[in-house]
C-alpha cells in the first residue's frame, strides 16, 4: 500500500466560460435532450418532469445574475435554441437561476495512505459530457468490490489496483468531456476559422455513422472494467 503522506499529483484545467442555469416551471418543449452550438454561445435544453425543465446558457464565469432578467434569459434561450419546425421553446415561471463554473480536475493516485478517494473528491469534469455521477458510481462500485474482498479474504490486490483501474476510465471520461466542451462552446480567442471548423465537425458527427457511434458509446458511459 502507499505509505501515509505520499504527495498526490493534481491535474486541473479551468475553462474561460460558465453555464447560466435556470429551473423553470414549463412543460418540455422537445422530447429530446438538446445541445446547441450558436454564434452567441452554447445552450442546453433538458427535461426534469412533465412540468419542469432545466436549461443552460453559456456565460462568463463572473456573470452578474442581477443583469439577467427573466425576459433576457428567455430571449437568449429562444435565439440559441431556434430550429426549423413547428416546435419552439415554451416559457414559464423561472424558479431558480445559478452560475456553474467549468473545470476539469484529477488527483493521482485516488488515495492518500489508507484514505481512498471517490467521485468529486478525486475528479471533476465539465458537465457538458454528463459524466460526473457516472464516474462516481463507477468509483464506488470498484471500491466496494475491493473492500469486500479485503474483509472477506484479507486480499489487498484490488485495493492496491483501485486507483489505476479508476483512473484509466476517469481519463477517458475527461477526454470526452473536454471534447464535447470544445465542440459546443464559443471561445473568446477562437477566430472565424475555428468556428467554421466546429460546424464542420458537428456536420460530420451528424452524418457519419462511425462518428455517431463513438459519441453514443462515450455518452452512455464506458464499462467500469475499461
Q: What are the low-pLDDT stretches, counting only 5+ consecutive residues below 50?
A: 1-5
Task: Give the proportion of residues in helices.
Answer: 25-40%
CATH topology of the largest domain: FAD/NAD(P)-binding domain
Number of strands: 8
**Secondary-structure content class:** alpha+beta
Roughly what fraction of the amino acids lie in strands? 25-35%
Strand order of the largest sheet: 2-3-4-1-5-8
- Number of contiguous helices: 5
What is the H level of CATH, i.e. the homologous superfamily of the largest domain?
Answer: FAD/NAD(P)-binding domain
Topology pattern, helix = H, strand = E: EEEEHEEEEHHHH
Q: What's the rounded overall pLDDT mean?
A: 92
CATH architecture of the largest domain: 3-Layer(bba) Sandwich
The end-to-end distance, rounded to whole angstroms, is 23 Å
Can you summarize this structure?
With 226 residues, the protein is an alpha+beta fold. The protein has 2 domains: 16-102, D-Amino Acid Oxidase, subunit A, domain 2 (D-Amino Acid Oxidase, Chain A, domain 2, 2-Layer Sandwich); 103-220, 3-Layer(bba) Sandwich (FAD/NAD(P)-binding domain), CATH 3.50.50.
